């Protein structure tokens, strides 16, 4: 799914993919219908993959007997096998992190020495604004969906949650078209009504502003928020709901008085994951952003398109630094749950 969504790397390497074709058909050839047709092909591929994945694990069930991590049995390797295992573990870090950072870091230091321009700070501000808005909305909607699925067995509710979780599988370019067409229709209908009724024009209220980006981010990353919060709910005993209802608490009161205090770390983790993914989202941003509106991701993309790779190093490094935050937090959470972690800290 992530490979289908990528547009930056494949375009710079000169590889023609369906995602690149959607982008070029829409913006370079000004053919939205043509881009929509290509998007339909990608949607068919995505839905086929989702169907296969869910069919494979349809009868599988996983249960946690404890919230803590159990110690794994150690296995001693021979010297040769140990060296090969070390190389296999080190290669992804070396190729995916150390080598790129060794290239970006000197250029970023040069950018700092020369002073970061207004374009960088403007793009950073836009990225923070969009990511915070998308994270807040996604966590709120994800909490409502997860709690609704816990509180009721309605097929409609569970079906809505299932549909909401598909958004992450849809490539950003396809999602951009799916968001733009209804938003543009709404904007045109609202503008026509306001013109005929009050004699004023509202213009492209949603599709021509950052609101369209926030909506696209929320739809795309709602699955992350919902999945994280739902997993947190499943670790909470259903007896707590029954006890709260026995004491006269309503469903809403149970959520605010019982579950929210327990789920605060989970909500924070869900928001952080959505925030990070929103900061580095490129395909949907390229297609839906208003004129003269850049984020850190599009700022790096634009400079790379002009072969100004060194000038975009600081923005790229900022995206990487933000992406490291959830990795560090998750690593600490896993380490804290391992047997003997508390005694080791003492």
Keywords for this entry:
346 residues; mainly alpha; MetI-like fold; 2 domains; 0% strand
Structure, explained:
- It is a single chain.
- By secondary structure, the chain is mostly helical.
- It has two domains: 34 residues; 228 residues, MetI-like fold (Orthogonal Bundle).
- Helices cover 75% and strands 0% of the residues.
- The protein has 15 helices and no strands.
- It is globular, with a radius of gyration of 23 Å.
- It starts with a helix and ends with a helix.
- The relative contact order is 0.12.
- The model has no long low-confidence stretch (mean pLDDT 84).
Question: What is this structure's SSE topology?
Answer:
Elements (H helix, E strand, L loop, with lengths): L1 H4 L2 H5 L5 H11 L3 H25 L22 H36 L3 H34 L3 H10 L7 H27 L11 H25 L4 H8 L4 H29 L3 H6 L7 H10 L7 H25 L3 H5 L1
Helix pairs in contact: 3-4, 4-8, 5-14, 6-7, 6-9, 6-11, 6-13, 8-9, 9-11, 11-14, 13-14
């Amino acid at each position: 799914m992530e490979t289908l969504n990528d547009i930056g790397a494949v375009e710079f390497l000169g590889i023609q993919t369906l995602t690149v074709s959607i982008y070029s058909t829409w913006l370079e050839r000004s053919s939205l219908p043509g881009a929509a047709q290509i998007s339909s092909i990608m949607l068919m591929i995505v839905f086929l993959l989702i169907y296969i994945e869910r069919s494979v694990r349809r009868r599988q069930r996983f249960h946690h007997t404890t919230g803590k991590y159990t110690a794994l049995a150690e296995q001693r390797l021979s010297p040769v096998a140990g060296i090969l295992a070390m190389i296999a573990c080190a290669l992804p870090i070396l190729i995916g992190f150390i080598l790129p950072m060794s290239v970006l870091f000197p250029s970023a230091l040069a950018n700092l020495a020369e002073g970061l321009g207004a374009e960088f700070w403007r793009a950073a501000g836009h990225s923070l604004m969009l990511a915070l808005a998308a994270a807040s909305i996604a966590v709120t909607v994800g909490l409502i969906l997860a709690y609704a699925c816990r509180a009721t067995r309605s097929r409609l509710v569970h079906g809505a949650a299932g549909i909401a979780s598909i958004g992450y599988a849809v490539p950003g370019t396809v999602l951009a078209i799916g968001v733009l067409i209804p938003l543009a229709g709404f904007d045109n209908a609202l503008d026509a009504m306001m013109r005929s009724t009050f004699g004023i024009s509202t213009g492209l209220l949603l599709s021509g502003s950052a609101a369209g980006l926030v909506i696209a981010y929320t739809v795309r990353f709602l699955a992350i928020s919902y999945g994280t919060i739902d997993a947190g709910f499943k670790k909470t005993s259903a007896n707590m709901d029954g006890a709260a209802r026995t004491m006269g608490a309503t469903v809403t009161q149970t959520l605010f008085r019982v579950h929210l205090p327990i789920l605060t770390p989970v909500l924070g983790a869900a928001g952080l994951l959505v925030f990070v993914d929103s900061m580095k989202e490129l395909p949907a941003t390229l297609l839906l952003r208003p004129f003269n509106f850049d984020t850190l991701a599009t700022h790096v993309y634009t400079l790379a398109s002009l072969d100004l790779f060194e000038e975009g190093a600081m923005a790229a490094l900022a995206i990487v630094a933000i992406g490291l935050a959830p990795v560090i937090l998750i690593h600490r959470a896993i380490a804290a749950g391992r047997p003997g972690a508390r005694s080791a800290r003492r």
